């Protein structure tokens, strides 16, 4: 599996920075970002698909960001709370790290997720998911 493109990294960075402007607490911003993205992915790929994409993204990102080694997405029995549980798990892992590492790991993780998603559903549909989740997001940076 390839690394995220520079455009995917930039998109993840921009979107996370938007959340950081809304919530200065980096871990809370990362959790909100995660929840927002996963919430908009669920109708498209299902709860199991969201779980699989996030789990694979974590595995691919761990080599560069060892703080993610403790983050093991677990499946919930109730799909309506799945996104919240996974984002809360991620927040709990990242709260133990310095803010700079939190931000870098989150950008890498979400860029990897965007890369996997683009491979699965294509660039256009990935861009639509991003636009649905963040209508105010810049459209000049494409996912791939």
Shape label: globular
Structural class: mainly alpha
Kindly report the average pLDDT value. 80
Radius of gyration: 14 Å
Report the uncertain regions: 76-80
Q: Count up the helices.
A: 5
Question: In total, how many domains does the architecture comprise?
Answer: 1
Distance between the termini: 14 Å
Q: In what range is the share of β-strand residues? A: under 5%
Strands, count: 0
Helical residue percent band: 55-70%
In N-to-C order, the SSE pattern is: HHHHH
Largest sheet: none
Give a description of the structure.
The structure is a single chain. The protein is mainly alpha-helical. It has one domain. The protein has 5 helices and no strands.
Name a few traits of the molecule.
mainly alpha; 144 residues; 0% strand
Summarize this, please?
With 144 residues, the protein is mainly alpha-helical. The protein has five helices and no strands. The chain has one domain.
